[in-house]
Amino acid sequence: MNEQNKIACPECETPDGLGRREFILAAGGTVATLAALEAVPQILKAQATTVQPAAQAPRAAKPAEALIRELYQGLTAEQRQRVVYPWNHGATATAAPTRKRMYNAAIFSAHNIAAAYTPAQRELNQRILRAIGSGEEGYRQLSRGNTFDGSGAFDRCGAYIFGDPTGDNQFAWVFTGHHLTVRCDGNSEANAGFGGPMYYGHSPDGMSARNVFNFQTRSAIAVWDALSEAQRRTATIQMYPTPHEQEGSVRFRALGQAYPGIAIRDLTADQRRLVEQVMRDLLSPYRREDGDEVMELVRRNGGLDRLSLGFFKNAGTAAGSWDYWRIEGPGFVWNFRVLPHVHCFVNIGLQAPARG
Q1: 142, 204, 211, 249 from 341: Cα distances, Å
Q2: Mean of the per-residue pLDDT values for the chain?
Q3: What is residue 345's three-state secondary structure?
Q4: Which one of 35, 201, 239, 293 is CB 3.0 to 4.6 Å from 179, fit for a cystine?
């Protein structure tokens, strides 16, 4: 029951045998990006005339948390045995609970969405996934154009509830598939962006327009292009053995420890604005409230000035090029591997005394 399903992903196993899809984060919280999301809700105005009554405004979409409660309440006792688990399921002295790990497939292969849910419940799970995204474009990115990458279909992914979403209980809805681990927890996880460590990716080359996250790569390239030669030397790091894929690579460094790359505070005003655009692009697939929470965590950890940006390269990578980039600072890791295809590991949480 606790075995993780393993979907074949070309090049998704590390040389030392540590499966990227089995990568576990034992993180204390999460912290990510900074800059405001610019998605402002549109106000619908009903047109009133003397000839016909005013048009009724569309019913507001339910937030993800309400949909999760609806899903939970509609499950049979047998279904709950398959898809509902205790809050701290899988936790040990050395391992994070199941809900906070990263996966590359349905967590429990025998209980993927097709096997565990009725058609109506599958549609409800899809509405939850849409609700944690930023509209249709956010859903397109999370679903990788509705292909769910190597999963091939929504129904081959997994959707599980940890805890009890009724009342004031702690809970987390965790959705996993190929190159994807996202969750919604109604802020059950204190001071944690996105409810805990997050993983996303896409199989096409990250430099290719076919990759749905290529716009994030282009945003990082704009920063690189704006750096002077001296700044590039500071920002470029010779890659040590696959740090971007090994367990622990997104654990927070101890406060006071140096972060690889160039400090954001050392950039010019124009370069800082480009970094802020990177932050906006990283947050753009997700709903506004999650973006706001991330921004607040970054502020409480000391702000953008305490983050660093590094560009990492393999030994065989051409001069002036890089394979992945990483923004890191107190309580913040956003690790974006571009080549040979996109793997992103994110961890965001409060790591410094609260400010203001």
Answers
A1: 16, 6, 9, 18
A2: 84
A3: strand
A4: 201
- Name every residue whose Cβ is closer than 8 Å to that of residue 153 and which is 6 or more positions away in sequence: 147
Burial class (CB in 10 A: 0-12, 13-18, 19+), 257: exposed
**The pLDDT value given to residue 316:** 74
User: Which residues, including other chains, have CB under 8 Å from residue 245's CB and lie 6 or more apart?
Assistant: 14, 18, 20, 23, 337, 343
State which H helix or E strand residue 216 sits in: helix 214-226
Q: How far is CA 149 from the centre of its chain?
A: 16
pLDDT of residue 10: 52
Residue with the two structure tokens 């010019």: 268
DSSP H/E element including 6: none
**pLDDT (tens digit per residue) in 178-213:** 999 999 999 999 999 999 999 999 999 999 999 999
Q: What gap in Å lies between CA 88 and CA 209, rounded to an integer? A: 40
Q: What is the mean pLDDT of residues 244-262?
A: 79
Cis peptide before 340 (omega within 30 of 0): yes
